[in-house]
Amino acid sequence: MSEPFPIILVNKIIDRFSRPVIVTGSVLFLPLFLFVVVSGAIYPDTVEPWSSNPLEITGLLLMLAVLPAYLMMCFVALTRTNNATFKFHNSRVPDLDLSNSRYKYSGFWVVSVIAALAFGIFYNIGWFGLSFDLADPRFYVSVAIVLGQLLLWLFVGIVMCMGFIDGLSFHKLGKLVPINLYNLDELNGFGRAGLNTFLMLVGSLAIVTLQSIDQVFRLENYINAFVVVIPGILIFVPLPIWSIHRRIRAEKKKLIVAINEEIEKASKALSGEELREMNDLIHRREQILKLRNWPMDLTIVSRFALYVFIPPLAWTGAALMEMYLDRIV
């Protein structure tokens, strides 16, 4: 199966630039940010109906400039990391040859983009009050809002679809790769795939808080974010990990059963070689029981725990800033 256009483009960026993540973020963020700054849309204090609270638009436009760039930066980083993981396992077991099946369902990315754009157009853009008459003072703000929303939901559609397809490929790979219980670090790529997806999703929630830069929390600004992020966490994070996790547990269980059988057959003598053999078997069983069940080491687990606190810390920081500004004013 040939690679879909978004993956072809991302792989070209990865191959061509030494810092593809930074390049991607800069190319997407700077043009929109410069447009809203130069046009004056970033702070429409003289443009109705936003003159009474221009910071509301400032927060919205900042979010629309930062979030699409952030999503695509994460997408590039995810693709590069996942490529390395698939390449590593294919080199270990050439018969796997997942290169042809990895993007088996990639043709659906167009459907995903259309669905995401439709959601953004009909449920995220408040068309009432916008104007696309060049002579109207609202023109630049209107263009910035619509352009930002279209870019955001375009990239949401791409990233969510490709993330799901790669998750399925990891799920399949987890059923096929050999498992060495004494070298589980070889499987850490599965855990990193889930971790990086988790970071992308919780980071998006943190960026959404830019909409509250005017010190006003509007629930409707966050509902759509939760509609995307919460199902994403529930599906995309465990998807690349679950099959290999179950196989690790099964391998451990099988080995423990075998050791228990050896213990049952071993001599129960309390001295000599028989005692040493029994102690070795018991010690081996304890070692197997202590082995981790997940394809991630302590570093990856600790980063998972850290990333959980990113949105709360962002929201707490916004609340503290609001209190500080209120005291100054």
Write structural notes for this entry.
This protein is an all-alpha fold and 329 residues long. Helix content is 72%, strand content 0%. The protein has eleven helices and no strands. The chain is elongated. The mean pLDDT is 86.
Task: Describe, in short, the structure shown.
The chain is an all-alpha fold and 329 residues long. Helix content is 72%, strand content 0%.
Determine the fraction of residues in helical runs and give it as a percent range. Answer: over 70%
Q: Name the beta content range.
A: under 5%
Radius of gyration: 26 Å
Number of strands: 0
Residue windows where pLDDT falls under 50 for at least 5 positions:
none
**Inertia-based shape:** elongated
End-to-end distance: 61 Å
Mean pLDDT comes to 86
Sheet/helix structural class = mainly alpha
Write the layout of secondary structure elements.
Elements: H1 5-16, H2 20-39, H3 54-92, H4 109-123, H5 139-174, H6 188-208, H7 220-236, H8 239-265, H9 272-290, H10 298-308, H11 310-328
Helix pairs in contact: 1-2, 1-3, 2-3, 2-5, 3-5, 3-6, 4-5, 5-6, 5-8, 6-7, 6-8, 6-10, 6-11, 8-9
List its salient traits.
72% helix, elongated, 11 helices, 329 residues, mainly alpha
